[in-house]
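> Could you send the MMPL family transporter prediction when you get a chance?

Sure thing. Input:
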Amino acid sequence: MWKKIAEFILGNRIPILVCIAISTIFMGYHARDVKWSYQYIRIIPDDDPDMINFNRFQELFGEDASSFVLGIKDEKLFELDNFLKFMELGDEIKELDGITSVLSLADAPNLTANRQSQKFEIKQFFTTPPKTQAELDSILSAVENLKVYKNRLISQGGATAMVIKMDPEVLNSKNRTAVMKRLEARAIQFEKESGIHLYYAGMPYVRSIMADKVKKETMIFLGISIAVVAIVLFLFFRSFSPVFYPLVVIGVVIVWIMGTLSLLNYQITILTGLLPPVLVVIGIPNCIYLLNKYHQEYANGTPKKEALAFIIKKIGVVTLITNTTTAIGFMVLISTGITAMQEFGIVAGINIFVTFIISITFIPIVFSYLPAPDVRHLKHLDFKPTNWVLHQLEMLVLHHRTWVYAFTAVMVGLSIYGSYKVTANSFMVDDLPEDYHVKQDLRFFEEEFSGVMPFELIIDTGRKKGYLKKGTLNKVEEVENFISSLNEVSQPISINTFLKAGNQAFHASDSNYFKLPSRSEMSYIMKYLRNSADDASSSLSDAMIDSTGRYIRVSSSMADIGSVKMDYLVDSVIRPKLAEIVEGSGLETMVTGSTLIFIKGNDFLIKNLKQSMLIAFVLIAIIMGTLFGNLRIIIISLIPNIIPLLFTLGLMGFLGIPLKPSTAIVFSIAFGISVDDSIHFLAKYRQEIVLHNYNMKKAVIMALRETGSSMLYTSIVLFFGFAIFMGSTFGATQALGLLTSVTLIVAMTTNLTLLPCLLYTFDANKQSMHPIIDGMDTFYFEDEDEEIDLGKINVK
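Output:
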């Protein structure tokens, strides 16, 4: 089959190049329409109980993560000039498109009881800017007297916050970034004018920062990856053509990636944004194997057109298999059931095969038009450092196998020990560096306000107007008191908060009456509320009760404490206590909110990534079994590729790197890539063992010499290609770069040392190994090659 493929490719060079050009132009045309994602990646499936509760919450009360918060802790704020600037800041932010409300000391509403109309009214404390320091101090004293703002707008430590609500439609669109930039620019201007430092937090701000950085880093790392690949290729081949034309292949693949995203109606996320630079790195080994083998054949005296046909026939099938195993490493992510992961796996898998097709056609065709390699182009075949390394590997395999096994055993033992130190823990802002101002500011809000991450409770009363049922509000009060007692959670807000504020307003703002009204007081309060049905005061209570009066919202925020503490807090503390509080009352409680969903999503993702790793292992083992038809060879080939994964897991334990989505994804991807070296080595080994009449020593050494340099070159490209991601500002991208590059360099080492040692020691009964795929004998045995009809190849 591959004989005919070689004849077809080299016999139809112009039509194939035209097809590549037209299809790439088509994909490039559609690539213009690819869009960036501005929404959080949803990980938990919609049929999960917690996701059902969260979706229900959003239907009842809307978005819970739409607040951007500015924090201040500076006495200078309360100086008249600075406070007037602060008022101007709030007024200007209100005017920005996409901002629905601003709440701060300068905009604090004052709930008052209108005795004449018998209703509540909301008025502003600052109806006009204060003219004197005494006037300002007097109004601020009145604001602080309202307990509703204690530990919500004003912390016990003296900090204050400006809470800015965004329109959910703007929040989940590309306009969010523009709004956030204008808002941030105005805040920075205030800092310069007043000399007061502001702290920034809130999910809209974090999402905006991350989306902006994804855009920038996608382009930066794409450029760096291309530059790194070009430099490494030039160091290997020392000439222009073997550098330029592989980069053309990569350029075509990048266009195809973006076109695929557009055609499948996928958006660019933090995951899919990594695909162009990742596939740049993964695609280059195809070109290296093809060019290296082409130069080897030509150096051995094979004419140019026969050498080009030979690499298609011999390297083509091996490359197809290795690309298949690499694609499996990505495409098993489809099994996670998570949309973002599925999109990542599908686009990667499709374009890995596109990379194979482009490289196996474009490289031989282009080099068929170029002059035959001269002495300068072939110098890399006798590159002394490479030859020295290969010679040392030969000595190691032939004379020091015991040392290889001993070192491997020690490494495996240490890796197993280190793996027990690995913990599965993730945070909401994991991806940002520790010294980044967003994390520093987040700690400020955690210290002053117990955090800003959304945390919500829903109390189901079981019937319409159930919140009016006797005893319900007292149970809500018990729930609030319990939540308030938790150090990790901020002071909650509910319908009770509004009723307490109403009670205080009803009693002339006496702070002693910031409590639930008595039964007699409640009748007056409810009357005032009914009379306020069309006022702004009513909208505040509506945000805490659904339209039917059945569901009560208890809204709070919390610190970013990580998935381990969060799981314990929710499952072992909060849920049991809530069940105890409402027991026998007919009420049901649900814990929900964006923070809970995010943390649970990470745990769900890790679990599914483990399953995908197992699937990848099984599928690749099946491929190896199909290729070599021998259980011993399957085991021997998998061992050198399992050890690097174990080493990486142990390294994570020793370095304190937690298991989280960004680190768990490494294993299936790296396994799919690393096994490629084993396939190349074993393919050549099978060929050599037959050619040398089952002379084990000769077969292992020849396989090492023939494939060793290509394995070194491709592994170095992969190492540096993934290592560049360690320069990212995202923790997820850094982890992908560090762990994948380490895994691949260890895999190269084990495949060049342990694999030949295992073959030399354990590969007995060699004649029982026969390929079982039709046509694979031409892949293994050179002495059975069919002659390629050179008349069908238009190469001069």
